[in-house]
Amino acid sequence: MVSVDFYAAFIIGLMGAGHCLGMCGGVSAAITLGIQNNQQSSRWPYLVLYNFGRIASYMIAGAIIGGAFASLANYGGQAAALASLRLLAAAMMILLALYIGQWWHGVSKIEGLGKGLWRYLSPVAKNLLPLRTPLAAIPFGVVWGWLPCGLVYSTLSWAAVAGSATSGAAVMLAFGLGTLPAMFAVGSMASHLQKWLKNLYFKRVSALLLLAYGVHTGYIAIKQIM
């Protein structure tokens, strides 16, 4: 199931790219503005390394969550423990599909869970600007990776049931890779991509695919529990 979850996480990142453009798209502009004037022509290394740091944070969170829940399940000696968690993850997938399809926006409320931590990290991110070298974009991305995001939290529920720290990190890596097209889109490319991603037909077809996967996973989890 880990490989399937890897692809599912990638699809979440890709299909949720419209949300990513709203939450983090402005960061690309901030990075560009933060680069010294004589380095504006070489902004790509900054963007690449920023996203490297951002995805690294996702993977760290996935490893922590995946490893912790796997240890709890093994310690408890209950095979149904991870199945129960997978049922919860399936429910999160269904809620996420409803959010992407614009049928229900409750997932956005989950972002409030991380506001306490972000209150302390936000000043750190601001102090890292302007970026004087491409390598300086890595810690900036690492900090920004902890920005409260409902999509990230929903995907972390899949990392929790991945079965190990390594698999949890892999799930979050897949999610991060799925967000890259939106994060690398700049200028006119970004406007065209955003228009496409905001197309209601595209969003609802994508949402139905995620919904089907969530229902299927939930059905398997219920069979394992029973």
From TrEMBL:
Bilayer-crossing regions: 6-35, 55-73, 79-100, 135-156, 168-189, 201-222
Keyword annotations from UniProtKB, A to Z: Membrane, Transmembrane, Transmembrane helix
InterPro entries registered for this protein in UniProt: UreH-like_TM_dom (IPR039447)
Residue span, Urease accessory protein UreH-like transmembrane domain: 8-215
Pfam families, A to Z: DsbD_2
Keyword Repeat in record: no
PANTHER family from the UniProt entry: HEAVY METAL TRANSPORTER, HEAVY METAL TRANSPORTER-RELATED
Protein name listed in UniProt: Urease accessory protein UreH-like transmembrane domain-containing protein
